[in-house]
Amino acid sequence: MTRVFVTRPIAESALAKLRGAAEVDLWAEPEVPPSRAELLARVPQAEGLLCLLTDPIDEEVMSAAPGLRVISNYAVGYDNIDVAAATRRGVMVCNTPGVLTETTADLAWALLMAAARRVPEGERYLRAGKWRSWSPELLLGHDIHGRVLGIVGLGRIGQAVAKRARGFGMRVLYHNPEPKPEAERELGVKYADLDTLLRESDFVSLHTPLNEKTRHLIGERELGMMKPTAVLVNTARGAVVDTKALVAALKGRRIFAAGLDVYETEPLPADDELLACDNVVLLPHVGSATVATRERMAHMAVENLIAGLKGERPPHLVNPEVLS
Ligand code: GLV
Ligand code: GLV
């Protein structure tokens, strides 16, 4: 029977479906990924791999798995996989787009609002017993309604974030490799070059994939263009932002605040400089973390894997050129 390696426990109903189609070798630790050595040791017999964004799947892993035919990532982003290497080897790479769009957009908004209105800071203050009185200047933040939202990357998630801005009466700018006239008409958003977007926005939310063009897209220069009252939100990938430059901007109050779900190094090291900044809201990469969405992601990842192993075209194939 076809053998697959699954690098973490995912929804049981999806695993049951996979067990009906393949012999499943499951990494059973829910919160600890297989180490590099363990990953290399478990893949040699695998024809399919169901992996997470915590598993770097590169040449070395693929070389260790000569029978590998399908890599199914339980994530929409696939920067953890060397897709070019997979394509050269004829290995299909799949992801889970669509099912997590709205959920991730919700979380981007949670971060945006929490950072603008200093929600976690206020809670820390109250819990620490520091609240003495209602005060005119206590924990002043910035308005969200009526302000300008800048969306960098108007893909599915960027568009879902834009849609929500309507309820807040915001003006929405977007930057994207190519303008999207249809989205402009539907969502009332306006294209801007990156510098204009950074200068004019009160909130800048990042929704690009991580690749060589977007690595450190937001660095010292870009942060310097943002308003001192602006908030940066990142639910995409940590390395889209130059973290050192961000820490300097937060410490120097060159921007008002940031809301982050993703980091250049995950998990965030206990001594990370971001942890010393009060004006940043930090979440542990939970953009798609709802009961319903994680279940949908599990089923989609399993369906992709099973289809690929059967020699069919998986519903969400990242490298269709592998079939030609
Ligand atoms: C999560 O970050 C994903 O890419 O699905
Ligand atoms: C990712 O799902 C995107 O297209 O925004």
Can you walk me through this structure?
The chain is of the alpha/beta class. It has two domains: 3-99 and 291-323, 3-Layer(aba) Sandwich (Rossmann fold), CATH 3.40.50.720; 101-282, 3-Layer(aba) Sandwich (Rossmann fold). It is built from twelve helices and twelve strands. A seven-stranded parallel sheet has the order 8-7-6-9-10-11-12, sandwiched between helices. A five-stranded parallel sheet has the order 2-1-3-4-5. Helix 1 links the parallel strand 1 (3-6) and strand 2. The structure holds glyoxylic acid (2 copies). One glyoxylic acid binds at residues 53, 75-77, 100, 287-288. Residues 76, 97, 101, 155-158, 207 line the site of one glyoxylic acid.
User: What class, by secondary structure content?
Assistant: alpha/beta
Biggest β-sheet strands, sense, barrel: 7 strands, parallel
Low-confidence stretches: none
User: Could you say how many structural domains there are in total?
Assistant: 2
CATH class of the largest domain: Alpha Beta
The CATH topology of the largest domain: Rossmann fold
* Intertermini distance: 27 Å
Helix content: 25-40%
CATH homology-level superfamily of the largest domain = NAD(P)-binding Rossmann-like Domain
Query: Which descriptor suits the 3D outline?
Result: globular
List keywords for this structure.
binds glyoxylic acid, globular, Rossmann fold, 14% strand, 5-stranded parallel β-sheet, 324 residues, 12 helices, 2 domains, 7-stranded parallel β-sheet
